[in-house]
Here is the input.
Amino acid sequence: MGDKQKMKRNQTAFLKEEYQELVKNNFDWRPRTLESGSKPHSIIDGKEVIMLCSNNYLNLSNHPLLIQGSIDAAKKYGAGSGSVRAIAGTLKIHLEVEKRLAKFKHTEASLIYQTGFAATAGLIPQLVDKGDIVISDELNHGSIIDGVRLSKADRAIYKHKDMSDLEKVLRDADTKYRRILIITDGVFSMDGDIAPVDKIVKLANEFGAMTYVDDAHGEGVVGPEGRGIGAHFGIEGKIDVEMGTFSKAFGVVGGLIAGSRDLVNFAYNKSRTWLLSGSHPPAVSGAQLAAINVLETEPEHVKNLWENTRYFKKELVSMGFDTGNSETPITPVIVGESKIAKELSNLLFDEGIYALPIVFPMVAKDKARIRTMMNAGLSKKDLDFTLEVFEKLGKKLAII
Amino acid sequence: MKRTIGFIVNPIAGMGGRVGLKGTDGVLKEAKARKAKPVAPQKARETLKEVALQKKNKDIHWITCAGTMGEKELKRAGIKNINIAYASKNKETSSIDTKDACKQFLVKNVDLILFCGGDGTARDIFGIVQNKIPILGIPSGVKMHSGVFGVTIHATAKMIEDFVQGSIPVGDCEVMDLDEDLYRKGIWKVQLYGVAKGIIEPTYVQVGKTSFESVSDNDSKSDLSDHILEEMQRNPTTLFFFGSGGTIDAIAKNIGLAHTLLGIDAVYQKKVIGSDLNEEQILKLLKQYPQAKLILSPIGAQGFILGRGNLQLSPVVVKKIGIDNIIVVATTSKLTGTPFLRVDTGDTTLDSSFAKREFLMVVIGYRFSRVVKIQTNNF
Here is the structure.
């Protein structure tokens, strides 16, 4: 009969099919390769370009003290940590980072996760469960959405930064749920605008709700010395969970939470991502520690970042570009249709500027854009060159 | 993608509006006597001019009706790829012409019917094509309660472009109409006539850092079904009234219930115990089952949850059930086009207790909701 040989199903055919579908629709990722480090002037696919889309806002990834910090820690503790934190992978340097970070953030305690995503995906499902509700800004980042999906809690969304909408959800949720968790991005990654975290915390306190702020793009960027969103609003220690990352402005890698000692005790005992992934290699921790030191002792990086940002934004606007509601070093250049954004991005690359397009459905159909992210290491000459190119291409494509 | 679009203008649509007739059905003479001017042809022309400028315009093959019922406006907009499938023999066109033209569209197997008119025209077209062909309306009637209309002329033109490019899927849209004869006697009665196919923008959910998947209306409805099913399991001694319209019909069918599309059904412990109920029957059931919940979905384009198409849910019924026991469900794509929920129960105290709430939480997915403002004023 040959039935045994007959294939029940082609178990891996979908791998190729789904990939090809992505390619067909132009939805596949084709990451460019950096042949240099991530620098203000990077070598990408053999070409030197001005980097306008890295999250290395302060150019700390190339800072000699961070590199030295990595080397020293590797020499002292080795290349790897040997285990997950809970068993035998907590090195003294991990604890040093957490202590220094809490001090930097003006909070009681802090905890380092392997990545920002690990923090969100590990902690949110523990904070809320069945019978609880997560209330989330409609424009929150994808990693938050994934974290929320892992929880059995109910979910409600409020209009972007709309406090009266949030209040309505809170009023409705107040009597129905055990715990209420409000989650928002600190700095929104697509538009570069800032959540009214002070008002959110005030509302949350009125209703007995917890607050969780994902400050990935604000850490090292907003607030005095780049201490983040809590410091920006002068409410350090009042956000229940201030979540951030070492992967962006800090120039290294890793997720973090800062808050009360109770929060940290709870978090490391309950977050499965934290408990089940290997801890950071010593070189990572050495660089993290150095990054905090640099932020506290060399204020020029944050200062340069904001000076560059203000200059770049002002000039773009005076040329007639629409930069949306940005209040941070993320400056979108809104061009309209998706294909114009893609074309502009390609032309920019030809001219030696690397900035990626953000298109529908990540943003509305008529709001496609080039998202630029400023770097403290760019000189005025670099910025003037970049602006000149933007002006030339903006006119060519009839955007301005 | 090559597309064939059936195009029809109801040249008299909208004429009754400015002269205070609340519609033009059957009162054309009166409208003309009141010096009403044609509205639809101009709206049609403006839309078509935008379509003519679109790059994909050459991919469209137009099937239309002779003269003022389509041909004239297509030609005026500079569109060339036209075939005439129907010519009226009457001097004054009427709903019979609309229906006969649609029969021809069915024969020609068009991909979409684009019409210029109001609820009356939508009803005539739906009467013939049912849900075999998607319908898209250029808003130009006096009454537009149905969900088949583009929000503006510009939006309609854009929807045509997206449809031709194949980037917009098709979904359910309610066809509603006011009974004009009753209205002119002072009785306001908007009925739900059926669920047509319309063009629906998909919504997208973020699945990764910057990757998205599009969620079809059907996926959304399946999520809503899971939510309602769980609600029923959690409340085993509660009677559930299922309201009318496409969304609730899909939910009921997903749960495995035989549901009346245009009426109100009662469901107890996952069994239908009453179909297409009138007010009296509903009140009787409420005596038997004092604990009840009512599932509603905004209907048509204006977002009515009460007072349009479901008059059997009278103020007495709603008060007995209690506002707290109303579960409003909607797909995200529907909410995109429905910024407000509206209530018009005809009972001022009841309307004002809705107004006091300012908003309702609308279920948009499994255990997933969002705030939607509520309006109680008539428009």
Notes: The domain at 63-297 of chain A is CATH 3.40.640.10 (Aspartate Aminotransferase; domain 2). Chain A has two domains: 30-61+300-396, 63-297. The CA atoms of residues 162 and 375 of chain A lie 30 Å apart.
